[in-house]
Amino acid sequence: MTTEPRVLGPAEWDDWYGNLELAFGGVPEAPEERALWRELAEFDRFIGVWDGERPVGTAGAFSFRLSVPGGAIVPTAGVTMVSVAATHRRRGILTSMMRRQLDDVRAWGEPLAVLTASEPVIYGRFGYGVGTYAARATIDTTRVRLTVPEGTDDVVLRQADPVKAVGACEAVYARLVPRRPGMLARQPGWEAVPLLDPAGERGGASPMQCVLAERDGEVVGFARYAIKPEWSFAGANGSVSVKDMGALDPAAEAALWRFLCSIDLTTSVRIHSRPADDAWQHLVSDIRRCEPTLRDSLHVRLVDVGAALSLRAYQAPVDVVLEVADAFCPWNEGRWRLRGGPDGATCVRTEDAADLALSVRELGAAYLGGVSLTSLAAAGRVRELRPGALFATSVAFGWAVAPWLPHGF
Asked: Is 222 a catalytic residue?
């Protein structure tokens, strides 16, 4: 066999996807989920490695548009469906697919590549850094109370069919995308991803439900959720699982959280993936009773350092020379002068002396503003070469809101 990847043909999808399922445990996905991913797949951006007629390696890249600090929407490769057959490990298949994929992304003119990792240890060697985190929590609604802002009582909540309400929800979501780095500007077809609700994956919970928040007849927020009824000798002990939500202002957001925390016959609200700085943490009376945790979410890779750093805004003025190491994509290696601020930036090659030294992996981690360069320096992953450069650059790279990926892909 050869480890050289080639582009996937539509007729090969079932075998190719079957290998992916086998690599992730061998449990077939629900038919509707599998059908949706095939519909969204861009076959000229999906590759594989074959041993004879058998696919033994898979990888794809959706053409995304990602929000970055400053509100710009940047063309981005969404790396997905990466697998290597258990029988063909340690033969260089993953490396060959990552090599081909990043070369392709560069040729497509996309300055960023992003992914969510089944095993975070895998992708650092290919230049990906953890750029966003997702918050999880379980709010004990029997002991936690909410304090809501003025105007919350003016918001009207209306139950809605999740499918019929998708247009209203997407309109709210689209307005939120430029406000928070890391969000995906959903393209046609992708509105179906948050609606995926296979019956076999509900774990005893209800089908997806939806509530809309309205003010003066305008939809200003939404929440999609499910309820899992449970009973003990003492009575009802059900839980609410928050699948997706968005709101345009604090009052609408508080109204939605108040609703979710007060549904009859439930005693907890389970949050699976929300921004690290999400507002609910400041509404609750006792954060300890919510058991919040963080987990890595979006891994970010700068494919074109100069273009990527030029496309985002910076929290404070910055003028710094970065010495970038990137063995896997050597076109990024060398010194780059970054000049920028809140209104934009330029980043070009330079022969000037470097102020900071770091790898492209650290740039990926810091790119969306959620991971500070000072924290990476404390771990020995960024070196300050000019006194004062680290603090000033770290402040500039930060952002007012935590980056967040709203759903996987």
From this structure: no
CB contact at 8 A, 73 and 313: no
Start-to-end CA span in the chain (Å): 30
With a CB cutoff of 8 Å and minimum separation 6, the contacts of 207 are: 197, 199, 226
> In angstroms, rounded to a whole number, what is the distance separating the alpha carbons of residues 221 and 274?
15
- How many other CB atoms are found less than 10 A from the CB of residue 405? 24
Q: What are phi and psi of 170, to 5 degrees?
A: -65, -35
128 is annotated as an active-site residue: no
Assign 171 to helix, strand or coil.
helix
> What span, in angstroms and rounded, lies between the C-alpha atoms of 75 and 185?
10
Find the catalytic residue in 17, 64, 123, 222. 123
Q: How many CA atoms lie within 13 A of 209 on its CB side?
A: 15
What are the backbone angles phi and psi of residue 164, rounded to the nearest 5°?
-65, -25
Decide if 365 contacts 131 (C-beta within 8 A): yes
The type of residue at 254 is: A
Q: What is the pLDDT of residue 295?
A: 96
The Cα 11–Cα 16 span in angstroms is: 10
pLDDT band at 118 (very low <50, low <70, confident <90, very high): very high
Q: For the whole prediction, is pTM greater than 0.85? A: yes
The answer to whether the CB of 213 falls within 8 A of the CB of 155 is yes
Tell me the per-residue pLDDT of 142-171, one tens digit each, with 9 for 90 and over: 999 999 999 999 999 999 999 999 999 999
